[in-house]
Design brief:
556 residues; alpha+beta; DNA Primase, Chain A; DNA primase DNAg catalytic core, N-terminal domain; Dna Topoisomerase Vi A Subunit, Chain: A, domain 2; 5 domains; five-stranded antiparallel sheet; five-stranded mixed sheet; 26 helices; 52% helix
Length: 556
């Protein structure tokens, strides 16, 4: 007896492995990994590592390793079926009827995968070599897509005809081509035709990098402009995101993660190395996709188009995200200029312009408050009451009890602040703006974060006392300077591996890792002076007091 492979993949994707293991093991975040004491053998120094991106754990001490299913089997003595059932209950997914493995069906699914891979190679060759792909090549060149980027995303071109004959010459029968969505059947004469014709091809891959479907953009006047493969044995558009592998690689380099709307946005953001980028496939974000996004990043930035449709999509995304919020997981919302998308910004204004937009992205609470508030006249008591009711109702959809209470407290605070402001006679627009708490990078925030790093670099022995608090604060997001987050993570990694590291040793290692310039900016007489200290004071008791004060302000 067995569960369908797609069901196993689904529940693995919905469950955060660190949340599961964290119920028994105290985990400390280190970059994209989390570490702790191994639950499978006795140890004093942590050698147990959990990687949510990959969905696997590994102990470098005893060699134990596996996924969420393995973990439940090893820690609770469950068999495979019991472990899968337990995970399904946690994920809120219905258990499908168990049935014997059908080797014919499994082989057929593999044959579909083989056909899709062969078709991707055909499309790539067409784009690279054929004269009829000239318009497609010119389009990509005009969009500043390099040959290296084309290769990274396996871009191709579907000619007006020719795929079916090519695939049949490779031994793929008509039934398989239909099942893979590569061909359609004419209602007029029952003949087969290529499903994608005269279109740029964007292969859609699973998290292992195998092609499971295609997206396609028309080069002529054909409609729709963008066309995706239909759902089939390898593909469900509600459970897949475009650009997964490329986004994962960039997030591992501590870049932010954007959720954008289209293929070209993903490709442009990735090629510019500004961030990782993912896109849903022509539909609103689903619960499955949100869970996948959070496997890569705890606080991605929704970066939808600046037109009305894009803003509506952002609001729908907020409505979908609220019910599945949990501690440590959220989103930020970037406001794009009217009529612009990330690709437009990169091509016409450059990478720094997009970085600036990302750095000023609003928190989920700010976005919810502001966007709902825009629908009401807040100087009218009836409309104001309706606004309060709607925003409260939306917060009540949050499923996690403590998270719902925290958001509820924040909203009630804003409601009371708005009431107080309006009683003072402030206009409605000003009143709404006055109750927002948008965390935009400011000189003061960056100065405080830089000051904290300066103190810690001078006194690495203090890091252990506040290690967990430091790990939870995103210095890059708050300061608008992602170099600060990078140097903080490097510092934490160095100190946890060598607790006796002194200031000179820490500075040496940070310089070796390429942080020399920002290090000299941080640990300078000017920075020390901003702390209200003299360089000779850096060894005094005042350091501990300052660190406590700075950390307290960051937690507000």
């Amino acid at each position: 007896m067995a569960f369908p492979p797609e069901f196993i993949d689904d529940i693995r994707g919905r469950i955060s492995l660190s949340s599961l293991i964290g119920k028994r093991v105290k985990l400390i975040k280190k970059g994209r990994r989390q570490t702790g004491l191994c639950p499978f053998h006795n140890e004093k120094s942590p050698s147990f590592s959990v990687n949510d991106d990959e969905g696997y754990y590994h102990c470098f001490g005893c060699g134990a390793g596996g996924d969420a299913i393995t973990y439940l089997r090893e820690t609770e003595g469950l068999d495979f079926t019991e472990a899968v059932t337990r995970l399904a209950e946690m994920a809120g997914v219905a258990i499908p009827d168990q049935r014997p493995v059908d080797p014919v069906k499994l082989q057929r699914r593999q044959s579909v995968m083989d056909a899709l891979g062969a078709a991707a190679e055909f499309y790539k060759l067409q784009l690279a070599t054929t004269p009829q792909a000239g318009t497609a090549r010119a389009y990509l060149e005009d969009r500043a897509i390099s040959d290296a980027t084309r290769a990274d995303f396996q871009l191709g071109y579907a000619p007006p005809a020719g795929l079916r004959a090519h695939m049949q010459s490779k031994g793929f029968d008509e039934g398989l081509l239909l099942e893979a969505g590569l061909c359609g059947r004419s209602e007029r004469d029952n003949s087969l035709y290529d499903y994608f014709r005269n279109r740029i091809i964007y292969p859609i891959c699973n998290r292992q990098g195998a092609v499971i479907a295609f997206g396609a953009r028309a080069m002529g006047d054909a409609m729709p402009k963008y066309l995706n493969s239909k759902d089939g044995p390898t593909f469900s558009k509600s459970a897949v995101l475009y650009g997964w592998q490329q986004a994962r690689e960039r997030v591992r380099r501590n870049l932010p993660l954007l959720v954008v709307e289209g293929y070209m946005d993903v490709i442009a953001v990735t090629a510019a190395n500004v961030a990782g980028a993912l896109a849903p496939l022509g539909t609103a974000l689903t619960e499955q996709q949100i869970a996948l996004i959070w496997k890569l990043h705890d606080e991605p930035v929704l970066c939808f188009d600046g037109d009305k449709a894009g803003q509506k999509a952002a609001m729908r995304a907020i409505e979908r995200i609220l019910p599945v919020l949990e501690p440590g997981k959220s989103v930020r919302i970037a406001v794009m200029p009217e009529g612009k998308d990330p690709d437009d910004i990169l091509r016409h204004e450059g990478a720094e312009a997009l970085k600036a937009i990302i750095s000023t992205a609003a928190s989920l609470t700010d976005a919810l408050w502001e966007r709902v508030g825009q629908e009401f006249r807040l100087d009218d008591p009836t409309a104001r009451a309706a606004f309060f009711q709607q925003v409260r109702d939306m917060v009540r959809t949050i499923g996690h009890n403590q998270t719902r209470q925290a958001y509820g407290d924040e909203i009630e605070h804003r409601i009371q602040s708005l009431r107080t402001t309006l009683r003072g006679g402030t206009a409605s627009g000003q009143a709404l703006a006055g109750t927002k708490r948008i965390r935009r990078p400011q000189t003061g925030a960056k100065a405080r974060l830089s000051a904290m790093l300066s103190l810690l670099i001078a006194h690495p022995e203090r890091i252990a006392d506040i290690y967990e608090d430091l790990a939870m604060v995103d210095f890059g997001r708050l300061a608008g300077d992602f170099r600060l987050e990078e140097i903080k993570k490097e510092m934490l990694d160095l100190v946890i591996h060598d607790p006796d590291l002194d200031a000179d040793g820490l500075k040496h290692h940070l310089s070796e890792k390429g942080h020399g310039q920002i290090l000299s900016d941080l640990y300078s007489d000017d920075m020390i002076a901003r702390l209200g200290m003299h360089p000779n004071d850096m060894a005094t008791q005042k350091v501990g007091t300052l660190l406590d004060e700075l950390l307290a302000r960051l937690k507000r």
